[in-house]
Specification:
The complex is a heteropentamer of chains A (about 300), B (about 325), C (about 300), D (about 325) and E (about 575). Chain A is mainly alpha-helical and about 300 residues long. Helix content of chain A is about 70%, strand content about 0%. The chains are: A mainly alpha (about 300), B alpha/beta (about 325), C mainly alpha (about 300), D alpha/beta (about 325), E alpha+beta (about 575). Bound molecules: adenosine-5'-triphosphate (2 copies) and magnesium ion (MG) (2 copies).
Chain lengths: ~300, ~325, ~300, ~325, ~575
């Protein structure tokens, strides 16, 4: 018997038509066509560059110099005016970008990752009402972390990791992942009965592979939205933690600027408040646009014409 | 039965594929009369389901582009309706049975709620009546423990049961036009017979016209009045079933008929596939799409699109699109 | 029956774990109340005295066991700073916090769901952009500023002066409304951004499912699509989000709202307890939180199975 | 009885589902089914819709755990397999799901789905896996461009072929094909039939082929099993079954096959009350619809009878019907 | 009917709504350690003495006592008679819930409580090592049955106190909430919950108390003592604008109800005041711009002046930053040479500190900067003192460093302790920028933050903080109270947070501590002050100015310092409202 030949294959299509794998090119090309997503990407890139500039000492280094008067208005010397101490608000805002990236990004990425993995494991092993020991232990961990007052926990971490610059990150990651974890767990409990999971089980794929390749991509919407929320939360919590003696003691951040500005707003000076809020808003907007675009780009069902 | 209640003229659908735009449905036209069952047969991937979705207005602009000169349902031209009016038409005047029932049913609603919602929406019955009608519908399509089924969720049903739930839903609307996309693939033959009977009864009692998409030529022969043969997005032959099975004129139709496996009491006879592959919709050649698989093809076939022509003269009921039609039946046996 | 037993054991383990770990943190890392309780010019022996009075000199396990006994007998002792019985503190403040937070919590989530549905349904249109933009704004504005702004706007002569600035003299519905409105609005404004953003993402995902197409084919209106099909399919993440924020609402309350609006709720009490190291209160709060988490955990796992039949 | 030579043997398999979340109400989807599949043979499984064919397939794969009974592969109980044994077994039994759209990862391209089992079982060198996937697609009549598509971008028949390609890409010893040709046009179907016969012949792959199309079964199968309401009511060598079907239900099935000839009379559906799977009728499960029902059918559950004299199990014809009760 | 209606509106005028920027955490006199608690306690309980309402400087005035104490010639024996017919309020703690007569024994009991470890009292330091037998009583197990020679009730109304050595501040201590008189029955009945069920004989009784506020109502049985402007030290020249005159001859407490709101947040406090929900507010510093028309002289904005009375007062205390003398990096060092270098460093830091700017930025420029440790409210304060120690002198500071071999790389790392808050942090940053001006590298000045005051206190009381900023509120108008902060034996865990130990200073302190107020003692105080300044032990200091605003409808003169809450009983309705009330 003659086996069917792929006669048409080489004739009609250039051979390289199928080269690109994993749809990476596809994601990028979809992203490129998404104007809002591109805007988000541009915003995030600009901020990233700013923070690199700060990191390498090119930008915002004068954040702590108090050479101005109290609450100076915008001027050539101080583009966005000065704060109570006479420090330059613009410099401080720029310098804060680094803090935002360092803390916001690290915390949101890692807590989302941790939440995704542990949540997925828990959800997977929730085989019956009550779950098995994997589910049980992860739930237990979540319960413990959630029940302990945040301040108490953070104080403990601060004490235990005294002076270590990443103590703050650790404290936040360890406490933030539970929310994502619970959401992912619930989502996985739902997804795991779907046909394609069954079919990957039929092949005998190991559980981690099933979870990472087949299950977690279908929770991408939750992961992205949680990551952007963790980002905000991290930036806002950073102030509280610095107040508790954790993390970057000797630095400035948007959160710190917002905290300072509460007093200033009462006194009728809005520069600090507006600047910090605006920077946070823009970066957040960038992240959200990008996250939306990514979600679309990674979802093959959202085709574009 | 000669009133035409649904007519489609020059419907085309263009989709975005990995290889660029592909016109997966290419200027197809047909019409349906009240109570009629029209079979739509064609090679897998030739665009039947897309046609169905396009007729329902379910192909949305980012995914695909639908153009048509006319899709006329009764006195409404669906191409000119806005989404809101289209929505009122959908379900009540035209409804559809989807090909893959598991993903098509809402996983968190029970069968009962699927059915009764549709019944309440389109028949205006109250909750209790609707539940009763739902049970009735289920029994009609041969589902025994209707009580259990009513409370079951889609994932708890077998493939055939899901399919029958979809059929029941579509039938419950008593639409003017029903598009059934391979409704009986997961049914055993006895159940299939029952369902087909129900469908044709629907046509008799409510004048519903049915576009029955199927691969089973046996079903076409038994249940349909007329049939369309589709190949690569185009209709290549349209004929009353008798004529189609008796004297197919398009070589593709003939090939299909030859490939139908039949039960024999003796040793099974091998059937022959049509040689060659279906071309990719994004890379169709000019002329007749079937040309590169057709033994009768010549250069004209490769360059010139054949138009639909009438075979049997003035009655105009048997049409084909072929430059070299078969003159007489090549149907063995 | 086995499930109930299982849950009880699991819950007990959780409570044991939470109490043990948090007690450990409390004892080793938590604030030491000695120095807030001693008078001026204290001597070393007075400090020892205070430590003894606070039980700080007892061995850890001993104190922990005492804690467990207190927890299970529901006799939680008296606050170190005010001397009030912890039970009576809880009884006094919990209802207030609930009454304060619930409306905002419920409305905030409902509004978030509605806006999320609208945005998801009109994804890519201007209404979606507007909603997304506003929710990002909401997320980036600080809570304090919202509270102060609303206070000035709604409660002072600089603004509309419609509601009391602060207080909680709740006697009847109208006084309740008077006192609860501005805090509720602040709470809604603060959470709405997050809620909307979250729900929108969930709804968008759910509305790209095949069965939505079926529903449309059967003539479901946009409202039906969103409210019935998308919403019901999203109930699992919605439940998760809502249920697990309950402890935050009930137990943690909101420190800021309570202190800015002069409301004697549990938020301030527990915050003070944490920062000052008032262990009896802290122990009660931690214990209570753990119990509530256990209950919520059990409840959500049940609810999951109710709202989504595929979860077995 | 030499069960040891069987590739797959299913013994008294029972699958029960809980209905409506309650513990007590159980639905028996598969009720004591036993059969063997020998290496390189094709076992056709037909039966009423909802009679438990998919459940049987899933429980063979251990996707739903059987309530009782056992499944042996090469004489080893699947339920007890662990580690490398299990992995080998997984490689050697592949399932093509009845619902191809649901069974393909929506966010993964066809290529990823096809290569995945190759990666997992380390079949071929990594750079050759794509070519192998490509070949698998070609054998089921799809072109390579499908590789880069996503499941929702295919037609029903194409998806079904992808599912089949995925099952055979590892070249297992046994493929369970759950209604794998139902959405294909007859030409493609013919091609697939040819392919399967070829695979069987050249690679010795055995099939458990579930289908409703009896004509296809006849073309393919060496043995045919007929299920009704969870029970295997008849098993016979294919030629025997199509020549002299013993069970009234099998006969009804054969009679109801629509003939592709409009002149032929319309097939008739079975008359009588369709039984409930939750509360199956006492006695013979088919008695409510059986044209030849007798009194004992209503009370006595018929045993499985061998009705031909062949001593060899491979060619024996079993039926569960009182008519054949000596 | 109409009459009723008007009555009910007028009753609302006999409510005084006070606001505080912090909350007491309990109302047990023995534990009323913060000013907020003291405020309420002196209204709910009786103290033997109080300060005159209007007299400045402060003057003692008998409260529950009939007269000022009779003091024996050696200054060791005090005899005090309390007023007759004073009753505790009715309370469940008493038999038949009937308040009983207040007796001398109650006073003895109340002081003893401070020496009973179970009370967890915080006021013992006031009487520690002062009263004959009291410390032994504690050492013997605090048995209330045991008599104490130095603290006795001679009869129902006579108290006798015998001191170990003269203690001129004793009567001052008897004005404080700590000394308030608690009935034993209540302590035994309520136990620890006494803190929320006060049972006293003060002018008010408690209605409710929680984290947000407290409500007190008039104790209708409070003794009838007509208000006399003259007796309270009325000064028409400065006090006539407050409209107190019409209260003359009436019986306090004037208000039926006092509502005290605890509002830590400036914005909320101010908003509530502006919205008319409060009668009194201490204006937040951030609002000074909005409140004041001019700083010098201090003038209120006209639109506020229309509705509110206003007073600017200095706090009864000061803020200073101590060096930890126990830290060899900056304090005492066994090596005399290093010791001298450290001193030079301290002095340089002090000189580099810009008090003017600190005042300007954080205290709106209206705080009073003064040299040393005797704050302006103290009677012994010397306005003509040499101010060089608070005048910034960068040149001198640099010189000092240079001459003692301090170069940028040799300078020690400084750790500045503070509790975390925006303002403290900003102060730290400002401090660092001050130091930058003398070339102190930015990277060598580190913040050492603490989450709560308790943590901070624990750290500095354990000598773990190098530089700490302390705010001290005086307990009584006598500079002894601030000078003792540097007395060697008071070193930590005592209140000498600098751990300063200077022989001469200690001697002077010992000598002066037994002296009654006199020019000689003042002289000694000033000498000690100078010693501290010269040793550069502390960067000091500033007394903050408070802007107090209150409703014109209320006739009163509020005070946040030594008077404590004693003035509540004198807060009366304004004249306009008052008339209505009288007519009724
Ligand atoms: N979303 C899509 N994007 C790109 N191409 C698509 C999409 N959906 C379908 N196609 C392609 O369009 C063609 C027509 O598909 P359609 O589903 O209509 O086929 P069909 O006739 O229903 O086939 P079958 O009988 O197999 O169901 C196929 O070649 C398919 O691959
Ligand atoms: N998860 C489940 N929960 C409860 N009942 C189920 C579940 N899955 C299947 N069933 C029931 O089991 C019976 C057998 O289903 P199964 O899918 O095995 O049938 P099938 O023979 O494959 O039918 P079809 O030919 O229609 O696909 C049906 O009655 C079905 O309703
Ligand atoms: Mg199709
Ligand atoms: Mg099936």
């Amino acid at each position: 018997m003659k086996t069917p030949q792929a006669l048409t294959l080489s004739r009609v299509f250039p051979a390289n038509a199928f080269e690109s794998d994993k749809g990476r090119g596809r994601v990028w090309s979809k992203l490129r066509r998404d104007k809002a997503g591109l805007l988000g990407l541009v915003i995030v890139t600009v901020f990233l560059l700013l923070s690199l500039g700060v990191l390498f000492g090119w930008l915002g280094q004068g954040w702590s110099i108090a050479d101005g008067g109290r609450w100076e208005p915008m001027s050539v010397n101080h583009w966005l005016g000065t704060n109570l101490l006479g420090q330059d608000i613009f410099q401080r805002a720029v310098f804060s970008t680094r803090t935002a990236f360092e803390i916001g990004l690290a915390v949101s990425l890692l807590s989302t990752l941790l939440g995704a993995l542990l949540g997925a494991l828990a959800g997977w092993y929730n085989t019956k009402l009550g779950g098995n020991w994997v589910d049980g232990s992860i739930l237990w961990l979540m319960g413990v972390l959630d029940s302990i007052p945040f301040y108490l926990f953070v104080a403990a971490v601060a004490y235990a990791l005294q002076g270590w610059p990443w103590a703050m990150h650790v404290a936040m990651i360890v406490t933030f992942w539970t929310t994502t974890g619970r959401l992912v767990r619930a989502e996985v409990m739902r997804i795991k009965s779907r046909g394609f999971v069954l079919s990957s089980r039929a092949i005998g794929l190991p559980v981690p592979v099933i979870l990472i390749r087949h299950v977690l991509p279908n929770t991408l919407h939750i992961l992205l939205v949680q990551a952007s929320m963790a980002f905000v939360a991290a930036i806002k919590t950073e102030v509280i933690l610095s107040f508790l003696g954790l993390g970057v003691q000797d630095s400035v951040s948007w959160g710190m600027m917002l905290a300072e500005s509460t007093q200033e707003v009462l006194a009728g000076h809005f520069n600090n408040f507006l600047t910090a809020s605006f920077m946070l808003f823009i970066l957040l907007l960038g992240f959200n646009l990008l996250a939306d675009a990514l979600q679309d780009a990674f979802d093959p069902r959202q085709a574009s014409l | 039965m000669s009133d035409c209640i649904f007519s489609v003229r020059n419907l085309s659908v263009t989709l975005q594929t990995g290889l660029g735009l592909a016109r997966v449905v290419d200027k197809i036209s047909f019409s349906l009369q009240g109570g009629e069952i029209l079979g739509l047969v064609g090679e897998s991937g030739c665009g039947k389901s897309i046609t169905a979705a396009a007729l329902m207005g379910l192909v949305l602009s980012p995914q695909g582009l639908v153009t048509a000169d006319q899709i006329k349902l009764g006195d409404k031209n669906l191409t000119q309706l806005d989404e809101a009016s289209l929505r009122r038409v959908r379900g009540s005047e035209i409804s559809m049975i989807f090909q893959e029932p598991l993903t098509a049913l809402d996983p968190v609603f029970s069968v009962g709620s699927h059915l009764s919602t549709v019944i309440r929406r389109h028949r205006g019955e109250n909750r209790r009546q609707a539940l009763r009608s739902s049970v009735d519908m289920l029994e009609r399509v041969g589902m025994a423990d209707a009580d259990r089924i009513m409370q079951s969720y889609p994932h708890q049903l077998s493939g055939g049961m899901r399919q029958r739930v979809m059929i029941a839903m579509a039938m419950a609307c008593r639409p003017k036009v029903l598009i059934a996309d391979e409704p009986t693939t997961a049914l055993d033959v006895t159940t299939q017979a029952q369902v087909l009977t129900q469908l044709s009864e629907l046509g008799q009692s409510f004048g519903t016209a049915i576009l029955l998409i199927t691969h089973d030529l046996g079903v076409v022969a038994q249940a349909c009045d007329r049939a369309l043969i589709m190949y690569c997005g185009r209709i290549v032959e349209e004929a009353p079933v008798k004529a189609l099975f008796g004297a197919p004129t398009h070589p593709y139709t003939a090939g299909l008929l030859a490939a139908v496996p039949r039960i024999s009491t003796g040793r099974a006879q091998r059937v022959q596939a049509i040689p060659g592959l279906v071309p990719h919709p994004a890379a169709l050649s000019d002329g007749c799409h079937f040309a590169n698989r057709c033994q009768r093809a010549d250069t004209r076939c490769r360059t010139l699109i054949p138009n639909m022509r009438s075979v049997d003269g003035p009655t105009n009921s048997h049409l084909h699109a072929c430059h070299h039609p078969l003159e007489h039946s090549c149907h063995a046996d | 029956m086995r499930i109930i037993l299982h849950n009880i054991i699991h819950g007990l383990l959780l409570i044991l774990g939470v109490t043990l770990i948090s007690f450990l943190l409390m004892v080793w890392f938590g604030p030491d109340q000695t120095y807030t309780l001693i008078g001026k010019n204290a001597t070393a022996s007075q400090i020892m005295e205070v430590r003894h009075e606070l039980n700080y000199d007892q061995p850890f396990m001993r104190r922990y066991l005492d804690y467990l006994v207190e927890l299970f007998t529901l006799d939680l002792g008296a606050s170190n700073s005010s001397g009030e019985q912890v039970n009576s503190i809880l009884r006094r403040t919990l209802p207030v916090s609930l009454a304060l937070m619930l409306p905002g919590f419920i409305i905030g989530n409902l509004l978030g769901i509605v806006l999320g549905l609208i945005a998801a349904f009109r994804k890519g249109t201007w209404s979606d952009r507007l909603i997304t933009g506003l929710s990002v704004t909401g997320m980036s504005i600080s809570f304090l500023i919202i509270i102060i702004g609303l206070q000035v706007l709604l409660s002072t002569p600089y603004g509309l002066n419609l509601f009391p600035v602060r207080g909680w003299q709740v006697e009847d519905l109208s006084s309740y409304l008077a006192y609860v409105t501005v805090p509720t609005l602040s709470l809604i404004l603060v959470t709405l951004g997050y809620n909307t953003r979250f729900y929108r993402a969930v709804f968008i995902e759910e509305s790209s499912r095949e069965h939505i197409r079926t529903a449309r084919a059967f003539g479901a209106s946009p409202a039906t699509l969103m409210w019935r099909h998308v919403l019901k399919n999203s109930l699992v993440p919605i439940t998760t989000r809502i249920m697990f924020s309950i402890p935050l609402v009930v137990i943690s309350g909101s420190l800021l709202i309570e202190s800015y609006f002069g409301i004697p709720g549990i938020g301030k009490v527990s915050f003070d307890a944490i920062t000052s190291g008032d262990q009896p209160i802290l122990k009660a709060v931690v214990g209570l939180t753990a119990v509530i988490f256990v209950l919520i955990q059990i409840a959500t796992d049940f609810i999951y199975r109710l709202v989504d039949p595929r979860i077995s | 009885m030499q069960t040891d030579s069987a590739l797959l043997s299913v013994r008294e398999l029972v699958v029960r589902y809980r209905v409506n979340g309650s513990r007590r109400e159980l639905l028996t989807a598969v009720n004591g089914v036993s059969f063997d599949i020998h290496a390189g043979s094709i076992f056709g499984l037909v039966g009423e819709s909802g009679s438990g064919k998919t459940s049987l397939a899933h429980s063979i794969m251990q996707l739903t755990l059987p309530t009782s009974g056992e499944v042996q592969f090469h004489g080893k109980n699947l339920a007890h397999m662990k580690g490398s044994d299990l992995k080998k077994m997984r490689r050697n039994i592949q399932l093509a799901f009845q619902d191809p759209l649901a069974s393909l990862s929506p966010r993964r391209s066809i290529q990823q789905s096809l290569i995945e089992p190759l990666d997992h079982f380390r079949i071929d060198a990594p750079e050759q896996r794509r070519a192998r996937a490509c070949r698998a697609l070609e054998t089921v009549g799809l072109e390579a461009d499908v590789l880069l598509r996503f499941p929702h971008e295919l037609s029903g028949g194409q998806r079904q072929r992808v599912a089949l390609a995925r099952a055979l890409v590892t070249e297992p010893e046994l493929i369970i094909a759950d209604e794998s040709v139902s959405s294909m046009d007859v030409s493609v179907q013919a091609r697939i039939i040819e392919l399967i016969l070829n695979l069987r012949q050249q690679l010795g792959i055995a099939f458990l082929f579930i289908a409703h199309d009896l004509a296809v079964i006849q073309q393919l199968a060496d043995h045919v099993g007929v299920m009704y309401l969870g029970k295997m009511i008849e098993i016979a060598p294919a030629d025997r079954l199509f020549r002299q079907a013993a069970h009234p239900y099998t006969r009804a099935l054969l009679e109801a096959v629509p003939v592709p000839d409009p002149a032929h009379g319309k097939p008739v559906a079975l008359q009588g009350e369709v039984p409930s799977a939750l509360t199956p009728p006492a006695g013979c499960v088919f008695h409510t619809r059986c044209p030849r029902v007798e009194d004992r059918c209503r009370v006595l559950d018929p045993l499985s009878n061998q009705i031909n004299e062949s001593g060899e199990k491979r060619t024996s014809h079993h039926v569960k019907c009182h008519l054949w009760n000596p | 009917n109409g009459g009723d209606q008007s009555t009910s509106t007028e009753i609302s005028h006999s409510v005084y709504r006070h606001s505080m920027d912090g909350a007491p955490n309990n109302l047990d006199p023995a534990r009323s350690s913060n000013i907020y608690a003291n405020f309420l306690v002196v209204n709910l309980y009786d103290t033997l003495y109080r300060y005159k309402y209007l007299a400045r400087p402060y003057q003692l005035e008998p409260n529950l006592a009939e007269n000022l104490p009779e003091i024996s010639a050696d200054g060791l024996t005090y005899t005090i008679r309390i007023k007759p017919d004073v009753y505790f309020i009715d309370d469940l703690a008493f038999p038949e819930s009937k308040g009983r007569l207040v007796s001398a024994q109650d006073f003895v009991y109340s002081i003893k409580r401070h020496f009973d470890p179970q009370t967890r009292a915080q006021g013992a330091w006031l009487w520690q090592n002062r009263i004959v037998g009291l410390d032994d009583w504690k050492a013997n197990g605090s048995d209330y049955k045991q008599e104490i020679t130095g603290l006795r009730a001679l009869d129902g109304r006579t108290i006798q106190i015998q001191l170990i050595s003269p203690y001129p501040q004793l009567v001052h201590t008897l004005t404080q909430g700590f000394s308030a008189i608690v009935p034993r029955e209540a302590v035994e009945y309520y136990g620890r919950e006494l803190a929320i069920h006060p049972v006293g004989s003060g002018p008010y009784r408690l209605l409710s108390f929680n984290t947000a506020g407290a409500v007190m109502v008039r104790n209708s049985d409070f003794r009838q003592e007509p208000f006399s402007l003259e007796n309270e030290g009325y000064d028409p020249a400065s006090q006539s604008r407050y409209g107190l005159e019409h209260l003359e001859g009436l019986t306090p407490p004037f208000m039926d109800r006092i509502e005290v709101e605890f509002i830590g947040e400036d914005a909320a406090r101010w908003n509530a005041f502006i919205a008319g929900e409060l009668d009194f507010v201490k204006a937040p510093v951030s609002q000074f711009d909005q409140v004041l028309e001019s700083r010098n002289p201090l003038v209120l904005k006209p639109e506020l002046a229309e509705n509110f009375h206003f007073q600017a007062t200095l706090e009864s205390g000061f803020v200073h930053t101590d060096f930890n003398m126990d830290d060899p990096r900056i304090g005492y060092h066994p090596n005399p040479e290093t010791n001298a270098r450290n001193k030079a460093l301290r002095c340089a830091i002090s000189k580099a500190f810009d008090w003017e700017k600190r005042n300007e930025i954080f205290y709106y420029g209206i705080g009073q900067v003064f040299p040393g440790i005797i704050p302006p409210v103290a009677p012994e304060f010397n306005p003509d003192q040499d101010r060089t120690s608070i005048i910034r002198d960068l040149k001198a500071a640099r010189e000092l460093l240079k001459s003692h071999g301090w170069t940028a790389d040799k300078l020690p790392d400084l750790e500045i302790g503070f509790t975390s808050s925006v303002t403290e942090r900003q102060m730290f940053e400002q401090f660092r920028s001050f130091m930058a001006d003398i070339g102190y590298p930015r990277g060598k000045i580190h913040p050492l933050t603490f989450a709560s005051y308790g943590d901070y206190a624990q750290a500095y009381l354990n000598r773990e903080v190098m530089l700490m900023t302390i705010g001290w509120t005086m307990d009584y108008p006598d500079a002894e109270n601030t000078i003792q902060l540097f007395y060697g034996p008071n070193a930590t865990p005592g209140s000498n947070t600098a751990n300063y130990n200077n022989e001469e200073f200690n001697r002077l302190f010992r000598d002066s501590s037994t002296m009654l107020a006199s020019p000689a003692r003042t002289e000694m105080y000033r000498k000690m002050n100078q010693i501290v300044i010269e040793d550069c032990v502390t960067i000091s200091g500033i007394s903050r100015k408070m802007i107090l605003l209150w409703n014109r409808d209320i006739a009163m003169l509020p005070d946040r310092s030594f008077l404590g809450g004693h003035f509540f009983r004198f807060a009366g309705p304004g004249k306009a409202n008052f008339k209505n009330r009288q007519e009724e």
